[in-house]
Each structure stands twice: as structure tokens, then as C-alpha cells.
Write a structure and sequence with these properties.
It is built from 9 helices and 18 strands. Keywords: Exonuclease, Hydrolase, Nuclease.
Length: 373
């Protein structure tokens, strides 16, 4: 027989995104909720009936009532699918009030996997869940996946946590062994916790979060379509799900390069920009005029994006003899520019102090160009 399902995790519904401006915070929160419908569409398109969520469906142990009720309502709306929710470290079983509230409002097509006991998914297919008991359980909960099932059955483990190979002198308690699938006779092990898609072994995958929440992971946010057949290796197909792109372009510049053109080529274009969060931190060196042009381009680009942050502290400026004349030929402004230039080249100063002086000189040059007719 063939069994197919959609694997996802780490929806972190209700995440506050408190360090971002309110307008983008609201859109990011809404995108996480909307991921439920996108997961459902991906499951249907793949011909899967079941969606396995490997932990951290909720960002906190006490999500707002609206967050919880609307999430369960969205799953209930996708009534042709079955949703399996595993408690993770953010929404562990220690959050007893959370899971009591879920149980009170749980639709018929949603199953909470709160017990480490085999669950029948289909004839000859068993799910072996390892719900997280508390935020730091301190032991390997996936040992429960070794529970017996019928001979010849397809066995799927569903867990949440970190995996390392035990090559050091000491193993860490609570870490999932990388060979858990083999140890427990699993045909496939689906894990949550790591927010980027990653294959750990032939039959072990992190699906990653369906909606990215930071710049850490290079892989596109999505889910995994997993197809299993008795005696055959699993077939795993990544499916893009995310609405927002988190972009951190790698920009290393040298004098003579058009920094603005280089940057534009690395960024999303057109309507995609509204759903992109960008952090730009160029490195290298540019002539003072080139650095000022890049700074102006960054200012012009920023409103196109959902969120845009630039940091030029890693970009040094080469100062030509006549650059100071472009700021001012005399007077207090010229003396300030000369003082900053001297400080930026003073080997007796700490590197951070020299960098601050160089950045201040570059900013002064850019401001001088803005006020000139």
C-alpha cells in the first residue's frame, strides 16, 4: 500500500514580532494564521488526507483566546483533511490550560497527540508520537517510538526537538539521536523545532516552519509531502508555503562598483517587494561618492518593502584628495571633515573609534550632496 501525508511544524501561531513596527507585525501574524489554509491546499494538491504538525503550533503556552479559536476554526473549515497536533517545547503538555482549552473547542477532524502511544492513521499505518512534556524535558522522549505495532506495518515517528550526532565526550539529555528512525524501526521520522527544512538521514526530515520568522534560514519556508510504501525508501517533496520572504543579500563591494545596481539584482522585484523583509549590511570599500550614492539608493528603495533595514558600518570609504572640497572648501564644516578624516586614519585610536569617524565622514559627505543645488 501507499500512504501519503503532509508534514509541517512550528506555525507559532500568535507570535508577537514585537521588535518590528506595528503594520508589519500585524501582517506577519496574519500570514501565520493564513498558513493553515495554504497547508490544506498543498495537502489536497498532493493527494494527502492527513496533515502532521510536529510541535509548536502555538507560540506560547497561553495564546490569546482569539488565536486559539480561530486556528481550530481554520482547521475545522478544511473538513476533508485530518490534522494531528503534537505538543512542542513552546506549547508543551505542561501548558495544561492550553490543551484543556483545545480539547473543549476541538473540531472532529483535529487530533491532539498528548499521549506517547501508537495512533492508527490507516490500515497498516501507525503514527508513533512523542509529545513534549515540558519546555526542557531533559530526556529523549522519542524512545516511545519503539512501541510495537503489527508486523509489516508502516511506522511513522512524530517528534519535536534538536538532533546531534554524539561524537563529543558527553551526550546532552533531551537530544533526539540522529539514528532514531533505525533504532525504533521507523519507516519515517518527522521532526519539528528547527525552522529550516533539513534532511537528517534517509528517513528523517525537519519540515521547517511554513512561514518564516527571521533571517536565519536560507531554505524557503514550506512543508513536505511524504509518500511511504512498505519496503521502499520514503519519497519526500518540499512544497513552498510561505507568503513572506526574509532576504539578507550578500553584498561585498570594491571601489568602482555600482553598489546600488549590485543590490537591486539581489532583491525581489515588482509586487514581490511588499511581502519581503530585507536586512542589508554591505561589506568592503567604496569611494566616498559611491558610498553616498549607495546610501541614497537604500533610502529610495526602503518604502517598496514590507520592512527594510540597512547597516553601512561594515562598508569602508576611500577618501580622495578632493572629496573634502565636495563637503566644504573652508569654515567649520571643512574643519569638522578634516578632523573626522584624521581620526579615521589614526592608528593610535581603537578600530571601533576609527570606524565611527569614517562613517560620520561618509554621512557628512552624503548630507552635503543633498543640500547642494
Amino acid at each position: 500500500m501507499i500512504y501519503r501525508f503532509l508534514q509541517s511544524s512550528d506555525l507559532h501561531l500568535g507570535r508577537a514580532f514585537g521588535t518590528y513596527p506595528e503594520d508589519i507585525r500585524h501582517r506577519l501574524r496574519e500570514a501565520r494564521h493564513a498558513a493553515i489554509a495554504r497547508l490544506a491546499a498543498a495537502a489536497r494538491e498532493a493527494g494527502a488526507r492527513d496533515v502532521l504538525l510536529a510541535g509548536d503550533s502555538f507560540d506560547a503556552e497561553t495564546p490569546a483566546p482569539a488565536t486559539l479559536r480561530q486556528a481550530l476554526g481554520a482547521m475545522a473549515h478544511e473538513a476533508d483533511l485530518r490534522w494531528y497536533l503534537l505538543p512542542g517545547n513552546h506549547d508543551s503538555l505542561a501548558a495544561s490550560e492550553l490543551w484543556q482549552r483545545v480539547a473543549a473547542a476541538c473540531p472532529a477532524n483535529v487530533t491532539v497527540l498528548d499521549t506517547p502511544a501508537p495512533v492508527a492513521l490507516a490500515e497498516g499505518v501507525w503514527l508513533l508520537p512523542a509529545p513534549v512534556t515540558q519546555r526542557r524535558p531533559g530526556r529523549d522522549l522519542t524512545e516511545a517510538m519503539s512501541a510495537p505495532t503489527a508486523e509489516g506495518a508502516i511506522r511513522i515517528g512524530l517528534g519535536h526537538g534538536a538532533i546531534v550526532d554524539f561524537t563529543g565526550e558527553e551526550g546532552s539529555p533531551g537530544i533526539i539521536p540522529p539514528d532514531r528512525a533505525a533504532r525504533s524501526g521507523l519507516d519515517y521520522l518527522a521532526i519539528g523545532d528547527w525552522h529550516g527544512q533539513m534532511q537528517v538521514g534517509p528517513a528523517t526530515w525537519y519540515a521547517g516552519t511554513p512561514e518564516a520568522d527571521g533571517f536565519k534560514h536560507a531554505t524557503a519556508p514550506g512543508a513536505l509531502v511524504v509518500t511511504l510504501a512498505a519496503g521502499a525508501p520514503p519519497q519526500v517533496t518540499p512544497v513552498p508555503i510561505g507568503q513572506f520572504a526574509w532576504v539578507r543579500p550578500d553584498l561585498d563591494l570594491l571601489p568602482g562598483e555600482d553598489g546600488a545596481a549590485r543590490l537591486t539584482a539581489l532583491l525581489p522585484a515588482g509586487a514581490l517587494r511588499r511581502n519581503a523583509l530585507v536586512r542589508v549590511a554591505p561589506r568592503g570599500r567604496l569611494a566616498l561618492a559611491e558610498r553616498a550614492a549607495l546610501e541614497a539608493a537604500l533610502t529610495a528603495l526602503a518604502p517598496d518593502f514590507g520592512w527594510f533595514q540597512s547597516d553601512l558600518s561594515g562598508l569602508a570609504a576611500d577618501v580622495a584628495p578632493d572629496d573634502l572640497d565636495q563637503i566644504e572648501r573652508g569654515g567649520a564644516l571643512r574643519r569638522a571633515a578634516e578632523a573626522l578624516l584624521a581620526e579615521s586614519a589614526d592608528a593610535a585610536l581603537a578600530r571601533d573609534d576609527r570606524d565611527v569617524a569614517a562613517a560620520a565622514l561618509a554621512r557628512l559627505y552624503a548630507l552635503a550632496q543633498e543640500v547642494q543645488p
